[in-house]
Amino acid sequence: MGDARHDVPGTASVPVTGGSSGVHRAPGASRRSGLESALAHFHAQSYGKDVARVETLFFGGEPSNGLARPVPGQVRPRLPALAPLRALNAALPALGGPWSPAQRLLAACVEAVRVRRISAADRYPVHRAYPSPRGLFGADLFLLPREGGRWCLRVDPQSHALQPVGDAEALPDLEREGEGEEVLSEARLVVAVDPHRYPPEYGSLRPSLARLEGGHLLATLGLTLTRAGLSPRTHPDPAHLACAEAAPLLPGGMTPIAAISTGPDPGRGAAVPEALEVPGTAEASGAAGAAGASGAPGSNEASQAPPGAVGIAPEATARVAAAASPAGRSLRGWLDERTSGVSTANLVTSAYVSPEAGSAVTAGLTEAFAAVHGALPEPDALRLYRHVLEGDRVDERSVRELRADGSEGPARGVPRTGESNFSATLGYTLAVDFPAWARAHGARHAETVLHTLLGWIAQWGCLGAAATGLCARPMRNYSEEDWAAALGLAPGQTPAYQLWVRSERGTYLDVPVDAAPDTDPPEIP
């Protein structure tokens, strides 16, 4: 059994990652000071978090219900936003037919972010294809042009309109015949988050919650773009050029955390097709330079990446999507059924869910874990555990480590201690060695890269649950000390994110929200 860590983890001498020229070192004192600050900040969002009981859903100047309001100048291009993916199967093959790249991209964006149902009997009524704390949705999706930051559009999850942000004067005429097609076919996607959409009682936990949600949205976009027949190159990387260009245009409080491109990307060279790469060393930079946007030898686009940049290749996303997708179901129906369960339901009273019944959840998580494992800054920088009740006996729990190669570690008993006693019959924990991430990505971006990737991995588990009629509830507010001890983590490991699986979906009195008709919206004064 490992001892639980209660203080800020120690630091060590670390390199600063460089670009294609290799590794560079900053002055030791300032580098160490920055790393120590990053470790202390991460500690404040884990062992040292200051979360209080939330007394009401409403806070701030106006009630928040997760639904967007129309904004002046919003447009709906003369393209079908919903028809392309309406009848598409959840599994292969990808969308065929005459749909243009612009139609495919717009449909994938709308399908990923749109409101899918309203739960009249629940405290948190608004549901999308991915989870959000209290259904308040701190993440948004934005579109940028192929190059530069001349304009920025928000994809509205309620009306499916494209809402201008920043300098609306620079916007192209998306409603003019042909122009919308040309502009949208080359658009880049940026996911941005606003932690202040969550209640103040969440305290120092709000930044990590927002990044986690952004990762869930990023994975959902990867799925819908893949099924739309596009090739999404995913960048869970706030240093990506698209994020930098979006930042000055975004609404106040929003911070870009990740980008997706569907063609050759000037902000980031192509990732090695097998998984995710981090070109932070000379060796990694050399490998990146050897495989360009189409895998062509000699391309040096990847070596142009900023320090610590990361990218998930289209092939890796496609493999994870194939592992999680149910057969014989529509994509729309699959995403409609993603749920965390009724908000009032606890984790203990669920009917027994065996590891076999949760196999689709395990498959989604392990395939996603494998997709990023090759780029971990150190072999144990991220680990995945599954904990189960043995034969539905509440006094017998066991845990196994799930490895990226598909193998499993030996089962061992888990004591019922402290808060870890209250748990569902099947659950998963992602544990991290944060100092390794801070050393690899620097004090400025380590938390964002890490939490975005954690959310990206966990979303595939949520989709695996939806594929088999189960619900999966992500958890971030728990006792790290209790769970570190229960899982036997080493002192340097932190239980960073959990996913709990329940059999009772609790979708009572739910009202499905299908697409608004593909017609022009009324004029907004």
TrEMBL record:
InterPro entries: Nitroreductase-like
Compositionally biased tracts (Low complexity): 282-303
Region (Disordered): 1-34, 281-309
Name listed for the protein in its UniProt record: SagB-type dehydrogenase domain-containing protein
Taxonomic lineage of the native organism: Bacteria, Bacillati, Actinomycetota, Actinomycetes, Streptosporangiales
